[in-house]
Amino acid sequence: MLHYDVVVIGSGPAGENGAIQAAFTGKKVALIEKEAVPGGASANTGTIPSKALRETALAILQARSRDAHGIELRISGTVTIPELMGRKGLVTAREHSRIRDALNRAGVEQFRGIASFVDPHTIRVSIPDGGAQELQADIILLAPGTRPFHPPQYPIDNAHVYDSDSILLLDRVPRSLAVLGGGVAGCEYASLFGALGVNVKLVDSKDRLLTWLDAEMSHALEDVFRSSGIDLHQRNRAARLDPGDKDVLVTLEDGGRMVAQKVLVASGRVGNVEALNLPAAGLEATERGLLKVNAQFQTAVPHIYAAGDVVGFPGLASVSMEQGRVAMSHACGGILKQRVSSILPMGIYTIPEVSSVGDTEETLKEQGRAYVVGRASLTENARANLIGEAVGFLKIIADAENGRILGVHCIGPHASELVHTGAAVMAHQGDLQYFIEAVFNYPTLGEAYKYAAYDALDRMRERREGNVWPFERPTSRSRVP
How many other C-beta atoms lie within 10 A of the C-beta of residue 145? Predict the structure, then answer.
């Protein structure tokens, strides 16, 4: 039997980075991956493939909005979804190589097979050729990832009804699509298929999309969806799906009916824990296959850690990486990563993007904390107009007394990039003064921060009831006085 200081199960963002972190502290590390290629859902079935399709849809929209004379864009009726993914193959291949190279440089030994517990310190690796190898470990990190959840009432056959992985295997762009679920995956796919000219109907049980977002962002996204032709059916559910030869009849709980050529079921995800034989390790997963952990990502068995999507919200690749690093730093005595930052930017890759970091208006109201809001329109931003995405706005939430930045929220082009500037200022406990004094390139999307800051200062001045404030709001949005 082979013995390792650390055994990691899963090579997605949490597993990869956790294994490298453990190796960095001098531990002997093994990583087990059941698939032929590393990277988990992030590289192979979810993040990278879906974003590749999104980039194609976005490029088509941008080109159309630029009104370039003599250029005509159209999508062939025979084009397949994989063909529209464009650079997906190149990007995923490079990701596979990058992950393997990173693990090799760190000295992480890699095994391919299905992992299962024999006892709390022993893992059996069932190899594809039918053999098996047992590994003993002092520390174990579980990062098996998740897969789309299949509600039993929906016949997901990958011919008429798809989940958020199999939808990318469509043989061609459908003429109509019903999306069941208004979470991240549902919203992202609804917007990108809408951008491709598909007649999209989105059914969601909540009263607004992405309820954990700042409510103003949620409502702004709903407005964009409606203006782009997406048909929203909120506070409702699909009670029944009846696939036919060419279309699917969707019956809603309120009695309404709709017909769509294809249906996407986006009902969240479930942990990949069935094969792990968790009881042999003294562990138990939730109904959705998730594992409970403490702040250091230890499970109920202290030497067994879990990180990534399998521990639940927020289920972001960026956060999963940090969770894996923190878990193995704690387990192996490392000092570089003691905690996952409380400042977590979240990006939703709809068209347009939505991104958020820090407090929302709703969380601050619950805390009873006084705040001001500053906004800058991106429809008036020169760079947004140049790239053909003049939509949305940037929103800064600041402390009403001292101007300290409490949250930044954005809907519009490259929102997931824009929000990082706000996150950096928040991490250094910065205030509105930074944006007032900073010089931004022109034309850029980033200059929206200055106008949002001036707008917030206006709100502060109003609250001060006539007290003199040393900054004046610019009268022209193209120049700062």
Answer: 27
Global model pTM greater than 0.85: yes
What sign results for the dihedral spanned by CA atoms 197, 201, 207, 211?
negative
Please, what is the end-to-end C-alpha distance for the chain in angstroms? Answer: 72
Domain ranges of the chain: 2-147+270-332, 161-267, 352-463
State the Cα–Cα distance between residues 194 and 188, nearest whole angstrom: 10
Question: Which residue is it, tokens 């610019």?
Answer: 474
For β-strands 393-399 and 114-119, DSSP reports them as unpaired
The C-alpha atoms of residue 56 and residue 351 are separated, in whole angstroms, by: 11
Taking the CB of residue 119, how many other CB atoms lie within 10 A of it?
A: 11
Q: Please list, residue by residue across 469-481, b when 16 or more beta carbons sit within 10 angstroms of its beta carbon and e when fewer do.
A: eebebeeebeebe
**Rounded CA separation 79/132 (Å):** 43
- pLDDT tens digits for 395-431? 999 999 999 999 999 999 999 999 999 999 999 999 9
Any idea which architecture 352-463 has in CATH? 2-Layer Sandwich (3.30)
Count Cβ atoms below 10 Å from residue 111 Cβ, excluding itself: 18
How far out from the chain centre does Cα 279 lie?
Answer: 31
Q: How far is CA 422 from the centre of its chain?
A: 18
Q: What's the Cα-to-Cα distance from 324 to each of 22, 166, 206, 357, rounded to whole Å? A: 9, 27, 32, 21
Quick: pLDDT tens for 317-366. Answer: 999 999 999 999 999 987 777 889 889 999 999 999 999 999 999 999 99
Domain 2-147+270-332 has CATH 3.50.50.60: yes
Residue 173 CB: number of other CB atoms within 10 A? 22
Alpha-carbon distance 213 to 69, whole Å?
39
Give the CATH superfamily of 161-267: FAD/NAD(P)-binding domain (3.50.50.60)
Give the dihedral sign, CA 138/308/405/433.
positive
The reply to whether domains 161-267 and 352-463 share a CATH topology is no
Q: Which residues contact 311 (CB under 8 A, 6 or more apart)?
A: 290, 291, 292, 293, 297, 323
